[in-house]
Amino acid sequence: MALPRLFSARSASAPVARERLQILLAHERGLRGQPDLLELLRAEILAVVSRHVALDPEKVVVKMERGNHVSTLEVDIELPNIAERWSRAAS
Amino acid sequence: MAKVLVVTSGKGGVGKTTSTAALGATLAQRGEKVVVVDFDVGLRNLDLILGAERRVVFDFINVVQGIANLSQALIRDKRVENLWLLPASQTRDKDALTDEGVAKVIGELRTRFDWIICDSPAGIERGAMLAMRYADEAVIVTNPEISSVRDSDRIIGMLDSKTVKAERGERVEKHLLITRFDTARAARGEMLSIEDILDILATPLLGIIPESQDVLRASNVGSPVTLNDAASAPARAYIDAARRLTGETVEMMVPSARKGLMDRLLGRRAA
What we know:
The complex is a heterodimer.
Chain A: H1 2-11, H2 14-50, E1 60-66, E2 71-77, H3 82-90
Antiparallel strand pairs in A: 1-2
Chain B: E1 3-8, H1 16-29, E2 34-38, H2 46-49, H3 60-64, H4 70-73, E3 75-76, E4 83-86, H5 99-112, E5 115-119, H6 126-133, E6 137-142, H7 146-159, H8 164-167, E7 173-181, H9 183-187, H10 194-201, E8 205-210, H11 213-220, H12 225-228, H13 233-245, H14 261-270
Helix pairs in contact in B: 1-13
């Protein structure tokens, strides 16, 4: 009776595998959604800015950097010759 | 209506080609018209598993490039009447397979067959993407081992986002096929159990293929395991899985060479 229990206590590694997988996959599934979020942000930022300024959709870059405590969102929008157009309108 | 089924896994060596051959042969024996398509450009092996390696004249890429037509490239199985093979190319140029080319060939196969079973290469690169691209259904082959389960999870994510069906807002119907399962080791807690895997991957179970020497024996002689010894444990498990694919309800169990208490216990637990 004691023998099988002894044997299974030594070799029951499957629960460890299951726990490691659950933790890992929770993390990886979170990351998987990330590019979609960025694409959504990019599209909405583009829509808002386009309402006021004509711009090249290719020149809107949205990046996210993940840190341990905080993450940062970087938005880089290139506006074509906007200063030029304003100075022309003023003269 | 024709169904395009991709057999995929992410990880290599888990049994995609073995499963493609066994499921394809079984469906064909049951009267369905089946073509198995090898997507592993440069590393084709489905021809070997089916024992057709010496009959390959033209291949998938020849058809895509217009060098041969589909009828010239398709190889008819000598044992099962309704089973055909479209072999992969052994060319090293993986870019030879294009999205448009695959779409055209799959479209043509749809008019001729009931089942188009796409044997995916390992990995998540171009070949694997193209193999799943036009799929209506998917069989995800998983071993009860952590790296295989992790890769399957990744592949499931891709099936839900990168396929034509997913892009249209529809769903690719997914089935989990657990291969190389060892009932005794799982019962001793040495191997992930069926419940563990189903819990983690949250995908309906298509079948459980036991670890068996019959699989290697069949591949040695170039015969799907279901044809080589239909009474063997893995063959019976594949036959059950194929029946489930056609919509039949078949009780879930792990066939075993020796029918023991352990199998009955596990059969009940896995159902």
